[in-house]
Design goal:
The protein is α+β, with helices and mostly antiparallel strands. It contains three helices and seven strands; from the N terminus they run E-H-H-E-E-E-E-E-E-H.
Length: about 160
């Protein structure tokens, strides 16, 4: 099983960053480079405990579907989603949020097993891990830009944060 760790420091309140990270609409906006869209399950708003979403995206020139379910939710510090069906043999994504220097430190821990046994393990080493690292880093930078500007208001209910 491969594991990707990403840490992003964001100058915004933990609650805002937490909710942006589980917003279906913010996810679509932040993952435009893969033409990602929600096509089934929860397709807008904030993903809640025991809810699922099916994503359609283009990776490596191939249109793919990934259904994930929110299996843990501890606002505003942690949530975890697991793949129900999709291109991986298994996938688990842990999202953690901690106050840090007047803002938020967002940490992603993305565990996955490629399909096809040894061929999948070779592909994971050669290019899948690097592609996913780039995808998640780009998405996190987009979330950072949203959270640090007024753009977050388009995705979250109005509040004081």
């Amino acid at each position: 099983m491969a594991c990707i760790h990403i840490q992003t420091d964001i100058h915004a309140p933990v609650e805002r960053v937490f909710d942006l990270a589980r917003s279906i609409d913010a996810h679509v906006a932040s993952a435009g480079h893969s033409s990602e869209r929600a096509i089934a399950g929860r397709t807008s708003g904030l993903l809640e405990l025991d809810e699922s979403v099916t994503w359609e995206a283009c990776h490596f020139g191939i249109r793919q579907h990934l259904t994930v379910k929110m299996v843990e939710l501890h606002p505003p510090h942690r949530f975890e989603d697991h793949m129900i069906s999709g291109p991986f043999a298994s996938m688990r994504h842990i999202h953690a949020f901690h106050p840090h220097q007047g803002g938020t430190r967002m940490q992603d821990e993305f565990h996955f097993t490629a399909p096809l046994g040894i061929l999948g393990r070779c592909a994971a080493r050669l290019f899948i891990t690097r592609h996913l690292q780039r995808f998640l880093t780009t998405r996190n930078q987009e979330l950072k830009t949203m959270a640090e500007s007024d753009a977050w208001r388009a995705f979250l209910p109005e509040r004081d944060a």
